[in-house]
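Before we proceed, please read the two lines closing this message. Tell me what the token row says about the fold.
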Amino acid sequence: MYVFLSEEWMIAAREIRARYEGDLPVITAAVRLNQVITDVPFGEGTVHAHIDTSAGAMVFELGHLDEPDAVIMTDYVTARALLVERDPAVFMQAMMQGRV
């Protein structure tokens, strides 16, 4: 198991996305979000990433997009709950507490 957002995790996530991209339904809502993830327990402590569905699939990648629809700033724990655990309750609680 790799640490969320580590280089190894990103490599594995890219490989999984490539392996299954033809098997997933097309996403019709185009969303381009930049993320600033703080309190990362390694590296510089902050990771800049993005989510982009404009090509019909959900792509999560490092770096920021030009002209995003929105920018989300959240801490590492909340980002992991959203992207890995896919736990909407944790995400909603974080929003209500001002952590998003």
Q: What stands out?
A: The first helix runs from residue 7 to 20. Helices lie at 7-20, 76-83, 88-96. The first strand starts at residue 32 and ends at 38. The chain has a mean pLDDT of 91.
